[in-house]
User: Fold this.
Amino acid sequence: MTGVLITVEGVEGSGKSTQLLRLSEHLRRLGLPIVVSKEPGGTPLGRDLRTLLLTRHPSGEAWCAEAELLLFYADRAQHLAQVIRPAIEAGKIVLVDRFEDSTRAYQGAAGVPEHTLDRLHELVVGRLKPHLTLLLDMDPAIGLQRVEIRNLSMGDEFKETLFDERRLEFHTAVRARFLAIAQAEPLRVAVIPARDAPSLVEESIWRRVAPLLRNAGFTVE
Ligand code: TYD
Assistant:
């Protein structure tokens, strides 16, 4: 049996982490073999890249768009080699918080052209495709408010704010790109309304995940 790759995507504050935790706990209770990971930062080296990408450098210098893009792909290449591909080959259920669609949505919204994204995709990801992508969709104005509250309750050293600090228009463009991907690939991408109560969101997610796992030969009852 080969494994299953499920990715979770969405704008800032859409509740990805909460839902990923709930889903992973559910699958663990069922005794299923799971691996939970995230991008950027799904490997020890990737965690260093995550810091470089998401925290402001003391010099004040920011990555140019191309460098930023290559760092996200460097993180992804390492993650695929060390975590994702081996786990799929071992027949596991791999849950990843953000993957390629985030690059298409965020770096696309920042101005990276489609053909550049296609070329890097070809180089790093090739033919691998998530079996299911859960797009937690919500108005970024609400998501950003949630992030602000979360950041206020954390110490400065835990803040990863570079993307949170971008303007609302940027995040609105990111959401539109996510939705366009979902429209283009309705079989892969499930749009989950993320403003509902967490337990309702969890139920919508389960309605999409359970049949997929059943079809892949896992016992989900
Ligand atoms: P994440 O840890 O999921 O942040 P949050 O909890 O706020 O959703 O993701 C970190 C940030 O990195 C997020 O702002 C989106 C951004 N990102 C990209 O711009 N491109 C990418 O390819 C990925 C994976 C993330």
